[in-house]
Amino acid sequence: MSEQAQTARAHWSGRWAFFLVTVGSAVGLGNIWKFPYMTGSNGGSAFVLVYLCCILGIGVPLLMAESMLGRRGQGSPVGSMRVLADEAGATRLWQVIGYIGIVGAFLILSFYSVVAGWVLDYTWQAAEGFKALPKEAFAEAFGALLASPGRLIFWHTVFMAMSALVVLGGVTGGIERANKIMMPALFGILVFLVGYGAVAADLPAAWRFLFHFDPSAINRSVLFAAMGHAFFTLSLGMGAIITYGSYLERDVSIPRTGLAIAGADTLVALLAGLAIFSIVFAQGLEPAAGPGLILQTLPLAFSQMPGGHAVGLLFFVLVVFAAWTSAISLLEPGVSLLNERFDMGRKQAVVVLCSGVWLLGIAVALSFNDWSGFTLFGLGLFDFLDTLTTKIMMPLAGLLIALFAGWTMKRAHVFDEIRMGSRVFVLWYNVVRYLSPVAIVIIFLNVVGVIG
Ligand code: ILE
């Protein structure tokens, strides 16, 4: 790392800023698009219960570990790991944690941006107002979007440009500023939508669906789906939290902020679930509709319910904000690496990185139509990238992070950085040393088909 890059390392303006940007990273399509449909397809409350346990038992401890690595390393995910490996007298091969994260973030963003593009297209339609049509017409409309390379590539391009624009503004002037505007707005819109659900839709039905716990519905597939989703939703193993942690001042408490971040992310997912299922049940729609849940069922509901035009538009704006603040956090790790390794200025780094993601995203967009015959390991490009990153790369990075923080770093250094009461520290430390790695290995073996 050049000395100039090192001394010029930016910092968030305070703990509130770190909280907001990290919540901005965590709260994304994962909360509003993926969580509701996964809950809907995995038996409702059973999934919610396991998911909450995973967040608390694996997600929060690893979120703290990642923030700690970034703050102590003071570099990109790769640079931070090099510094920390040297400090621990360990092999520099640990830098692989940084590389997996950055490559993973690059690959995730290429399809994340295409999905965010669907949302932009629907935001546009919502602004015009969804026409009241029969149920099948909404499924057909979603199919027509997927079949149109032009529309998919156009909106993917718009979304990448929006994300690039924020990251170009820098750590405080771009990322922090955007989050300070969008996150409170997102929260406000969400609370409004839940209120709307209570007044105009069926909130009690949504509440029962999410919280009427029935432990007998928990099975192995629910368990694994919930664990994988805990990683995705907290942005773990993608270099994002290490990078954001590297801009964190030393006086901010990592455990306290980490808990607050995971709490806020979970709250948003649950509120989004309440808002969405209130509408789904009030309209007599199917909760297990799969990935098309918010895109196929909600527009139908918005086209029929009172105030649906305005509510529909607010809903899609909320999803755009969520996706946007997450995409930024997937770009920043790569930008910080290009800056550190190749002395590239922010502008050049953003252009190089975004061009690469954009090109791969075009291939993803085409995989839904013109190139749908092209498969890798039997999967279309979209599914292949999703599986590779969320089911293999992220858990692998998470496992290595737990092993590094729990077994390789000197305990005194970890303690110095985490700084919490010694009893709580011992609990956290043991979770990172034993529980998290074992749990991740179990998911992993399930995914590669050894068990499950
Ligand atoms: N955590 C976010 C989400 O839940 C992103 C995941 C960054 C790729 O959508």
From TrEMBL:
<feature type="transmembrane region" description="Helical">
    <location>
        <begin position="388"/>
        <end position="407"/>
    </location>
</feature>
<feature type="transmembrane region" description="Helical">
    <location>
        <begin position="96"/>
        <end position="120"/>
    </location>
</feature>
<feature type="transmembrane region" description="Helical">
    <location>
        <begin position="349"/>
        <end position="368"/>
    </location>
</feature>
<dbReference type="GO" id="GO:0016020">
    <property type="term" value="C:membrane"/>
</dbReference>
<feature type="transmembrane region" description="Helical">
    <location>
        <begin position="185"/>
        <end position="210"/>
    </location>
</feature>
<feature type="transmembrane region" description="Helical">
    <location>
        <begin position="12"/>
        <end position="33"/>
    </location>
</feature>
<feature type="transmembrane region" description="Helical">
    <location>
        <begin position="222"/>
        <end position="247"/>
    </location>
</feature>
<keyword id="KW-1133">Transmembrane helix</keyword>
<protein>
    <submittedName>
        <fullName>Sodium-dependent transporter</fullName>
    </submittedName>
</protein>
<keyword id="KW-0813">Transport</keyword>
<feature type="transmembrane region" description="Helical">
    <location>
        <begin position="305"/>
        <end position="328"/>
    </location>
</feature>
<feature type="transmembrane region" description="Helical">
    <location>
        <begin position="45"/>
        <end position="65"/>
    </location>
</feature>
<feature type="transmembrane region" description="Helical">
    <location>
        <begin position="153"/>
        <end position="173"/>
    </location>
</feature>
<keyword id="KW-0472">Membrane</keyword>
<dbReference type="Pfam" id="PF00209">
    <property type="entry name" value="SNF"/>
</dbReference>
<dbReference type="InterPro" id="IPR037272">
    <property type="entry name" value="SNS_sf"/>
</dbReference>
<feature type="transmembrane region" description="Helical">
    <location>
        <begin position="259"/>
        <end position="285"/>
    </location>
</feature>
<dbReference type="InterPro" id="IPR000175">
    <property type="entry name" value="Na/ntran_symport"/>
</dbReference>
<feature type="transmembrane region" description="Helical">
    <location>
        <begin position="427"/>
        <end position="451"/>
    </location>
</feature>
<dbReference type="InterPro" id="IPR047218">
    <property type="entry name" value="YocR/YhdH-like"/>
</dbReference>
<keyword id="KW-0812">Transmembrane</keyword>
